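Hi U.,

Before I forget, here's the chain from the pilot set. I'm dumping it here mostly so it's searchable later in email.
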Amino acid sequence: MALVTIDPVAPARKNKPNLTLFQIFNMSFGFLGIQFGFALQNANVSRIFQTLGAKVDEIPILWIAAPLTGLLVQPIIGYLSDRTWHPYWGRRRPFFFIGSILASLALFTMPNSTALWMAALLLWVLDASINISMEPFRAFVGDKLNSRQRTTGFAMQTFFIGVGAVIASLLPYFFTNVLNISNTAPEGVIPDSVRYSFYIGGLVFFSAVSWTVFSTKEMPPDDIQSWSEEKMRSKGMVNAITEITNGFTTMPPTMLQLAIVQFFTWLAFFSMWIYTTSAVAQNAFHSTDTTSKAYQDAGDWVGVMFMVYNAISAITAFLLPLLALKIRRKYTHMICLIIGGLGLVSMLFIQDKTMLLLPMVGIGLAWSSTLTMPYAILAGALPAHKMGFYMGVFNFFIVIPQILAAAILGFFVRILFNDQSIYALVIGGVSMIIAGWLNVFVKDADE
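Structure:
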């Protein structure tokens, strides 16, 4: 039976029943796979680009694929998932499943890139596929959980994001230092430790998302019987574009306030993902030669650093909601972002590789809060029948700062900082501190 595209004008289901912890576990488990792929991308793509010949100031523009695909894919997928229903597959799960297939194929292919253009193209494919799976997951929590359990639902997602990212980030280091698989290769060749990590990532991505797809059911809209194929055919692409465009002018006030916080937050995270490898290689391992053991060791160590911040994120996923009950969600988010920003700035003064793990603790707090608090606040401020669409629009304020970072960071690093990548992390840290203070202006309507 084909998917049915619907017009979501039905009133939201009221008094949603509490779900068991195991049910929330099942509906969130797919995020382990999604973040597995995302973490491999974040920790290794800059390394792959430089191995294939990219200069340090060219890395940001090569990364622009990631935010641009998000800019295009997220609102469209959110819009379509709001208007999809199938008796077996449901509303959001078709998108989880299709995205997992495409992302897994990209993960298997990327480490076999033989040219820089090929790796850049595969980053487009990988990021678009991750977005197809990830975007409906946020709306999934709003669909299935009542306001009492919503923060728990996002915290469970954050927990699996942390677990997936911990394992994925550590894989290249594990292959090199435990299994003695080479982390060096001839010029222009991706090391085996990275290739095998991406292969495992492809398997985990598909398996974890499939667990959620086949273990979780979705509730049909209340007036499912009123939808007909004739009504479906009356909705065309022009109407879709019009609704998406209008969505930007009808954002709830809370969403706009959070959007500004997100802008500065994600400028910081994107700076970190782009430049940590080259910054650590220069500052702590004293190498810029991508064929050298020192540079590749730095790349492995960045995986360990990213493992630490993701581990902290997983550990604190269920602690931050408890803090939020005491001091409110927005102040919890403010504190975590300021601590994370100070962590990024402090990396300028640290040259010992072991000491570089300390800033990752603060960054882990910021990451945990970023994956939980804004979405928990936002879900209570959105109309239920447009949850997927507005979640997609909200993510514009994740990808726009990434595009800005891709456009300007290379210039700053090359011209102002004489190719010293560490100063890109300082810029990110200052941006994250600003994001933290801006939470003062956020109104949490759901509270």
